[in-house]
Q: What sequence folds into this?
């Protein structure tokens, strides 16, 4: 099945800083999602983005399917952005389930 | 609120107990999923139901038994669990299959003593 790798594994930012999280995947994708898991365990949908670029407020994401990576940009970070960010991908030719990466743990400090 | 609810939010059980986790989605979706999230591991898919039919069992031990009485409800029945089964159990739903965007519930944090 598809392999999903995320980097960096851990990231500490000061409030107001910008950051880029990366997700590499080993095969073409039919589904790619970014999630934010808050400290209580809730997975919050950020983007459904198998290709192209999307923006939602301070967050944006770009998936370059031909080069097998996706990027999540966080601008002007806030302490509420802290948590774990997961990328999940699916290739329907090889599997019928989303495969999750191991996540990037983000801590935003004052 | 994602439109997917789970109860209970926390559960502590002994190895000989029988308990059930409940998931309900209010999104009109046809596919529902159980995932397990253990410490230091990626989310693992356990079961998939599509239009109430089980379409995937990801080699889950038989002490976990899913039930999907209709497209809006999903249960996970637990019996004779082991301490290593302690984890966060997440339910998700999507419009149809895995091609569609999945939405997650808040999870049940399970501790097996």
A:
């Amino acid at each position: 099945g598809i392999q999903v790798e995320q980097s960096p594994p851990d990231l500490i930012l000061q409030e107001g800083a910008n950051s880029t999280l990366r997700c590499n995947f080993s095969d073409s994708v039919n589904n790619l999602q970014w999630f934010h898991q808050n400290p209580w365990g809730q997975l919050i949908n950020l983007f459904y983005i198998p290709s192209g670029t999307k923006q939602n407020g301070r967050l944006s994401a770009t998936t370059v399917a031909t080069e097998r990576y996706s990027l999540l940009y966080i601008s002007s970070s806030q302490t509420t952005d802290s948590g774990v960010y997961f990328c999940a991908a699916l290739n329907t030719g090889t599997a019928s389930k989303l495969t999750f990466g191991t996540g990037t743990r983000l801590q935003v400090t004052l | 609120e994602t439109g997917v609810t789970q109860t209970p939010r926390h559960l502590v059980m002994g190895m000989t107990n029988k308990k059930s986790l409940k998931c309900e989605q209010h999104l009109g979706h046809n596919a529902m999923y159980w995932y397990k999230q253990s410490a230091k591991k990626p989310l693992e898919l356990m079961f998939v139901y599509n239009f109430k039919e089980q379409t995937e069992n990801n080699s889950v031990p038989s002490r976990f038994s899913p039930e999907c009485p209709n497209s809006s409800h999903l249960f996970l029945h637990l019996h004779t669990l082991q301490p290593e089964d302690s984890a966060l159990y997440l339910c998700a739903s999507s419009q149809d299959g895995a091609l569609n965007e999945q939405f997650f519930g808040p999870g049940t944090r399970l501790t097996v003593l």
Summary: Chain A touches chain B through 23 residues (CB under 8 Å).
